[in-house]
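Objective 1b. Sequence-to-structure analysis of Sensor domain-containing phosphodiesterase.
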Amino acid sequence: EARRKGTGAVELFNPSMVDDRAELVVLEAEMRRAIERNEIEVHYQPIARLADMHLAGFEALVRWRHPSMGLLAPESFLGLAEETGMIRDIGRVVLNEAGRQLGIWQRAYRSAEPAFVAVNISSAQLIEPSLLDDVKQIISREGLLRGSFKIEVTESLVMEYPERAAQILERFRELGVGLSCDDFGTGYSSLSSLRKLPFDTLKVDRSFISSEAQDHRAVVILQSIIAMGHELGLAIVAEGIENQDQVDRLGELGCDYGQGYFIGKPMSSKQVNDALAGLPYAHTSGRTAITWLWERAI
Ligand code: C2E
Ligand code: MG
Ligand code: MG
Ligand code: MG
């Protein structure tokens, strides 16, 4: 069934709907053309340091600017991309573009801590033999600061190939790539993956942050995740912050970073540049709680 998302995008390409192999081939061809025509875009959602609400970095989020259907959110096409293997090509576009953009920002601005960009990686991408070299090349080409280029993986991904994933993530760590455990608390084996894999950041799933999750149990769980993460030397990012109350609560709990519509919505690189230049970007988000404070490097 076609599902409407907040962005107005419709889920058109749910692979379970596509029972005809020929249909899949057509969609695959359309996606291939999308890459050739540069319709794959990367948007950037700001992540704030909760202590001062200053901009710390971004999560890179893929979008497809479809010629007739408009801006498509990942859930409307990533399923098919994974099914067809196109995710590897799309993923490469996202990594390249995000790395290029981070290089531009790092050369143009100084910030309290090095600005970072975190890119989501799918399982098909993670086990691609060329991934590590691709990332290595991006880092040296752009001269990215150590630890500033990050990848986000979910535990379900890691559980698909536990041994393989552990080896690959270890190589990334040696390369100085930041490793975030995405959507923490939703899959199973959360704790065992934290024990076995070299993560430096834990992203707490928004289901633990939402306004519905403010009962005593939810607060205790959140508190415990933050305390445990810190004991393990991990930085904690809270996902899905939608109001000031959540900012305050998470700050009190000692959470390091926050991400969510209240802090800033995903935006194009142009919108980010406007915001950094102090230009109005009201069309992006009515209200924002982040301070766009990066100093021009000259
Ligand atoms: P994710 O990695 O957990 O990314 C966060 C998602 O939550 C984003 O959705 C973001 O727009 C949304 N979000 C952020 N703040 C809020 C909030 O305050 N409230 C609510 N309700 N949602 C919020 P988006 O961009 O639609 O991406 C969905 C998922 O698609 C991502 O979840 C990630 O798993 C995947 N994805 C996105 N880009 C890529 C990519 O380049 N490669 C791969 N493999 N997966 C990607
Ligand atoms: Mg993510
Ligand atoms: Mg997430
Ligand atoms: Mg998520």
